[in-house]
Amino acid sequence: MPRTWTQPRNVLSGMIGSNGDRNDAPSIAIEVRGLKKNYDEVEAVRGVEFEVATGEVFGFLGPNGAGKTTTINMLCTLVTPTAGSAAVAGHDVVHERDDVRRNIGLVFQDPTLDGYLTAEQNLRLHAELYGVQSDLVKPRMQQVMTMVGLWERKDSVVGTFSGGMRRRLEIARGLMHSPRVLFLDEPTIGLDPQTRRSIWEYIRELKEREEITIFMTTHYMDEAEWCDRIAIMDHGEIVALDSPETLKAGVGTDRVIIHTDDNDAAIAALADRFGVEARKSEGAVSFGVPAGEEFVPRLFAELGIPIKAVNVSRPTLDDVFMSYTGSTIRDAEEDAGKERSRRMMQMMHGGRR
Amino acid sequence: MSTTTDPREPATATAIDAVETPVVRVTVPKRSLASELRAIKIVWRRELIRYRSDRLRMVTTLVQPLLFLFVLGSGLQQLSAASTHGVNLKTFIYPGILCISVMFTGMFSAASIVWDREFGFLREMMVAPIRRSSIVIGKVIGGATVASFQGVIVIALAGFVGVPYAPLMIIGIFILQLLLAFTITAFGVMVAVRIKQMQSFMGVMQMIVMPMFFISGALFPVANLPGWLAVLNRLDPLTYAVDPMRRLVFNNLSISPQARAALDPGVTWFGWHVPALLEAGMIVALGLIMLGIAIWEFSSTE
In this complex, do B127 and A78 lie within 8 Å of one another by their Cβ atoms? Predict the structure, then answer.
């Protein structure tokens, strides 16, 4: 793996209305070296290494159980690493916990709002816990709540909010204290497509307006496209790390999907005549070839099996994931699910938390 | 970025494009005593806000003590008339009932820590750049405040059970129940920190609260008890809250010396009368010890 990653385009400096602490913001927002976490015998994270530059939107992509949440929890000082080190906003996550905490915002997978309080009370509570200057609480609150479109609902009790509204409020809350790094653990999980989209719009808007680095995990491939760079994580390791475009270009093949009456015969024929390894997926035959458009005429001429329909597409992140891990993210999740339930059982017996 | 925004323009101007409002940047200061106090204050205030919005809880935690006071007190009056030397049973058990109302509410407030854990909110507090002890202290003070509100409601009922509204007595009782509220909430939080589920906490609470109540002497005089009960009674912290409260009440009743001696014998240790101030001091000391344990436990959880 290369040691120096590409620097992001816009490293902002010389912010107004801020104190010295912020002006000498390091250009590296997150630095991780050989980070490991074991739970009993299970190696949840097996020595990951990466750097995230200030101002970047960095995505952690991988199936459930790949170690994304464990990694994020270590970076947020919630879990102590077994080995390795990590620095967030220039502070060590083990030895300078408080300094890390002052500089990060967190949005968890599971809700952490007080449903009995109003939206405003929730945010105010957060501001008080973080010691935000009293005179700035109100304007800052208005700004973050306006951004997520909840300013008009500030006096409503959170218990009456829908799932999407709560997630938006959590994002607003995570931003209340102007964190240098915002951690989002699966921010869009379980949300409808429209809300997911709007959450991505907030993230993009944030990136434009504030000096902030965003670190997020997702297992939605289409969402990873929004990130400046993504790290693909599988079985506790980072298997690939680059911009989505570069990763996709690295696959080098286009995806061709054909529909035939006899898929098995088609797969055999593809292997036999073109030396292409194809497989069945969702009732069709799928395979990757370089320059897919040019391959199609040959396919029709030489396959010898009637083709009912054909589809050629540029590589997606799914293909990237597959080329690095050998399985689709969905398959990987099924395997990981089994592994996870095993681990859960262990934890329950171990009486954790 | 916001560099172009003219500071003279009102920030709240309902701009045509809301996106163009200036970025309000705040900073989080380094941890200090002031920031811890601020955190304690907001955790405390949250308990009050929740109490205020939960009217049902005010009522439900009062039902049982009032049942004891008015139903049990009136019902058993005939049975006990012979031995109370003309003192109304309700008057006699009133201090005990006040204590139990405070106790119920205090324990209930402590339960919110379990609740917060189950519903995730605890995590929001745990990741904040504050000491864990500030969370615990805020919770205990908050719970104690709420519990003493409940105590005030019961104090207001004094007239219904033949207890005069003597200002000094009221102040004394108020202070005592405040101390008790603190200690009980600290105790509740100490237990709650280790418990992950609401149901378990409720079970544990029932298991602890009722025996403490019965053993404390809330319903009977603490002299001439069978040996085993006398020992348990002297070990029960609630004993040391009920006893001085009862003395305060009885100081303000005009009753015969025999009645006084029979109903308010005072707590003795091997024949030595424990003074009220020491009793109050014990409650506080116990509360502080339990608060310390709660903080220690809470700080060592991941």
Answer: yes
**Minimal Cα–Cα distance from B51 to chain A, Å?**
10
pLDDT value for B269: 86
| Structural domain contains residue A339 | no
- Exposed / middle / buried, residue A132 (Cβ in 10 Å: 0-12, 13-18, 19+): buried
The verdict on A114 and A199 lying in the same domain is yes
Cα–Cα distance for residue pair B8/B268, rounded to 1 Å: 74
B16 touches chain A (CB under 8 A): no
Chain B positions touching A101 (Cβ under 8 A) are 127-129
pLDDT at B13: 39
How far apart are the CA of B44 and the nearest CA of chain A, in angstroms? Answer: 11
- What total number of domains does chain A contain? 2
Q: Is residue A220 one of the residues assigned to a domain?
A: yes
Tell me, yes or no, whether A115 and A194 share the same domain. Answer: yes
H helix runs in B119-166, sequence order: 121-126, 132-156
Is the pLDDT at B178 greater than 90? The verdict is yes
Q: Are residues A157 and A298 in the same domain?
A: no
Find, in chain A, the residue whose alpha carbon is nearest to that of B49. Answer: A117
Q: Residue A329's Cα: distance from chain center in Å? A: 14
- Distance (Å, rounded) from C-alpha B80 to C-alpha B6? 81
Q: Are both A226 and A168 inside the same structural domain?
A: yes
Closest by Cβ to A98, choosing from B2, B123, B129: B129
A322 within a domain of the structure (yes/no): no
Which of B27, B30, B120 has its CB closest to that of A110? B120
Residues A140 and A196 in one domain: yes
What does the pLDDT read at residue B301? 72
How many A×B Cβ pairs under 8 Å? Answer: 125
Which alpha helices (H) appear in B3-131, and where do they start and end?
33-53, 55-66, 73-75, 77-80, 89-118, 121-126
Q: Radius of gyration over alpha carbons of chain B, in Å? A: 24
Q: Which domain holds residue A291?
A: 253-314
- Residue-wise pLDDT tens digits, B94-114: 999 999 999 989 998 898 899
Q: What is the mean pLDDT of residues A245-259?
A: 83
Q: Do A353 and B302 touch (CB under 8 A)?
A: yes
Q: How far is it, in rounded angstroms, from Cα B104 to Cα B84?
A: 28
Domain range list for chain B: 35-299
The CATH number that applies at residue A283 is 3.30.70.790
A272 inside 8 A of chain B by CB:
no
Contact A82/B at CB under 8 A: no
A209 to chain B: which residues are within 8 Å by CB?
1-2, 23
* Residues B59-108 pLDDT 10s: 888 888 888 888 888 888 888 877 777 788 889 999 999 999 999 899 98
Mean per-residue pLDDT, A231-256: 86
